[in-house]
């Protein structure tokens, strides 16, 4: 497998790597379906974890290399990206300014004071709620010189984190069960040996990666990384922020930009965008999401979130039940984090 050269880009270490890759046998059995693995990027180790940690390693690596002292970023009131940026800035001694928008149709006290936004303040970030472009311009003026990170940390620099993540996954994935079932009958030492062997094993044992997609840096980085590593895995990107067509355009543009930044070919037909699990909109509960969050919790003890990973999980469940993911496939569900968001949606999970 070839490896794109990520070492040319400044990076600051913020997470615990590699994040675990776990088999979900009970979930697979429950669905009567594919071999499901879960990539635990909810366990990145930075203030409740999540997918923004990988992007921030490159974004803040660059901010430090350029000598910045202040970081500005944007998000929804319950932005996981804002919370992880706040944590990373605290750790690096940077001033963190968060410009948050009411992009979910809620204004209740729980939504506006708990979950991620509670943690933003705790982590020492300054939170400003902005309503429009004028508010943003005024805030930026007042803040002064700063390293500005786009929403979701999604530009080509941030997406490099997920190019690296794709390579990380491919070094972890076990050979198909016909060749080895390391966790059946093997002792811990043999398991470890198999795991090390698999690091040089054939890439491409994964058929699909299922992941929630909003600002697209995660899907774009994965697409470039998987393609460069010679894996055949398809990225099933589940739109959770805007409809499929718009999401597809954003994914394609950022995939191309990321490939250009790395100086590698732009991958073609690598990402399928699914729009059927968005429901009425961003941050709005759907019955499929609630069911999937319960299913993961009760079969695997894994906590998803209502806005992102829960809708991606609903897509995984729906695609398996519809036979669009075959029972003989190997699927990696990429857990992107979002735990604090669970606590601002209590009504979706009663009973
Ligand atoms: C931001 C986020 C995503 C989406 O990632 P993008 O790179 O913005 O597409 C998915 N899940 C969670 C929990 C997130 O916070």
Automatic annotation (TrEMBL):
**Which Gene Ontology molecular function entries are recorded, alphabetically?**
D-cysteine desulfhydrase activity
Q: Which residues carry this modification: N6-(pyridoxal phosphate)lysine?
A: 52
Instruction: Write down the required cofactor(s).
Output: pyridoxal 5'-phosphate
Spell out the catalytic residues: 79 (nucleophile)
Output the GO biological process annotations, alphabetical, semicolon-separated.
alpha-amino acid metabolic process
Alphabetized Pfam families for the sequence: PALP
Q: Where in this protein does the record put region Disordered?
A: 174-199
> Origin, by domain of life?
Bacteria
Among Gene3D superfamilies, the record links this protein to: 3.40.50.1100
Q: Which InterPro entries match?
A: ACCD_DCysDesulf, TrpB-like_PALP, TrpB-like_PALP_sf
What keywords would UniProt list here? Pyridoxal phosphate
Q: What sequence ranges are listed for the domain Tryptophan synthase beta chain-like PALP?
A: 13-337
Question: Which protein family is it in?
Answer: Belongs to the ACC deaminase/D-cysteine desulfhydrase family.
Protein name in the entry: D-cysteine desulfhydrase
What species does this protein belong to? Thermomonospora echinospora
